[in-house]
Amino acid sequence: MDRDYYEILELNRNATDADIKKAYRRLALKFHPCKNKEAGSREIFCQLSEAYDVLSDARKKATYDKFGDEGLKGGIPVEFTSSGAWSSKYTYHGIPEKTFKQFFGGDNPFADFYTIESALQYSSLVVGVEKKQDSPIERDLPLSLDDLFHGCIKKIKISRRVMNEDGETSSIKDKILTIEVKPGWTEGTRIVFTKEGDQGPNCIPSDIVFIVREKPHHLFTRQLSDLIYKARISLEMALTGFSVDVETLDDKLLTIPINDIVHQSYKKVLSGEGMPLPQDPTQRGSLILTFDIEFPEKLSADSKQMIKQALNLKYSP
């Protein structure tokens, strides 16, 4: 039995290309198996896809308009093709999902809870069909204290599975992800690349997350936005005074005089010489000097006596 493709799409024979697209969009969404579970909806969906496959193609449509379903599927003599008609025998591939995917750009336009009005300029229908997203892929991003002080650019190559154009097969492809490290970033900062994981036909690609891990530094220990510098000094220096030279991360040489008597819990704080603040890199934390005092392993009796006299302590034999 001949099929009336215009009737299937609820169109008259004067329908324009825009009318055909609009009709297929409306009816394909209405009878799509993900939305319509009524008996016979699958068959209607197939008929709609075949009708659109024919009427959206200028040569097939020209053949159908002049010779009908029989001429389209049975073929017509070459001499009748001057009007641009389809001369070969037409057979629909029988995969309505393929037609649907080519039209909408995906297997299921409802999958991510987009409104059809937003995605297709059709209506405000929201359909609760959800693709499941894989769990995030987390990787460490080791950075030196210098990287975190100045900021830098890191380029990381990843290999991931990407769907091919047929929507069914996939291949492994490399991609370069660029991370702009901001001055002042701290341990544990997370950089998220949305949906950059492996692609699959029925899932949303996972996010790739890089987590900042701070490498140890040979001079400084970090505490939030402060830098701790430990100087090793002798007992003599602790009691009589001294100065400390510190080369900072921004290549300055600070000479810091210490005139106080230094004990084990003594700290010297220099404001504005620490790490940039993450929320405002123009501001900086403090450089904090702590001290490790070396005591002599032994003293002679004379040395002990001299120390006691210097400290003005009474000698008890």
Give a description of the structure:
There is one protein chain. The chain has 317 residues and is α/β, with parallel strands linked by helices. It has three domains: 5-104, Helix Hairpins (Orthogonal Bundle); 133-214, Urease metallochaperone UreE, N-terminal domain (HSP40/DNAj peptide-binding domain, Sandwich); 220-294, HSP40/DNAj peptide-binding domain (Sandwich). It is built from nine helices and 13 strands. The protein has helices spanning 5-8, 17-31, 41-55, 58-74, 96-104, 116-120, 145-150, 235-240, 301-310; strands at 132-133, 137-143, 152-163, 170-181, 190-193, 203-204, 208-214, 220-223, 226-234, 242-247, 253-258, 267-277, 280-294. A four-stranded mixed β-sheet has the order 8-9-13-12. Strands 2-7-5 form a three-stranded mixed β-sheet. A hairpin with a 2-residue loop joins strand 8 (220-223) and strand 9. Helix 2 packs antiparallel against helix 3 (41-55) and helix 3 packs across helix 5. The protein is rod-shaped and about 125 Å long. The relative contact order is 0.08. Residues 112-129 have low confidence and may be disordered.
Number of helices: 9
Low-confidence stretches: 112-129
CATH class of the largest domain equals Mainly Alpha
Please bin the fraction of helical residues: 25-40%
Terminal CA distance reads 127 Å
CATH architecture descriptor name of the largest domain: Orthogonal Bundle
Q: Which structural class is indicated by helix and strand composition?
A: alpha/beta
Largest beta sheet: strand ordering: 8-9-13-12
